[in-house]
Design brief:
This protein is an all-alpha fold. The protein has one domain. It contains four helices and no strands.
């Protein structure tokens, strides 16, 4: 039997902190912030990687489009 949260959505043992940590590790947070914005100068100093280890200098609007497109898609568990 699956645990349910107070609003009826399925719960898992993964905490929100773990999710954010994993997203940061694979570069999703940095990509969402925009590697070409004002905070990007701190990315290299902090050792931040971008998705697929794309170098900061090679990040372009096409990569932004992919991040925005995939970020806007709705995840599904396959359940109804």
């Amino acid at each position: 039997m699956q645990n349910k949260s107070h609003n009826g959505y399925p719960c898992s043992a993964v905490s929100l902190t773990q999710v954010f940590k994993r997203h940061a590790e694979i570069g999703c947070i940095a990509a969402a912030l925009g590697p070409k914005n004002k905070v990007a100068k701190y990315f290299k100093k902090a050792g931040v990687v971008l998705p697929a280890n794309i170098p900061l200098e090679e990040w372009d609007p096409f990569h932004d489009f992919i991040v925005i497109s995939l970020g806007g898609s709705q995840p599904t568990t396959g359940e109804r």
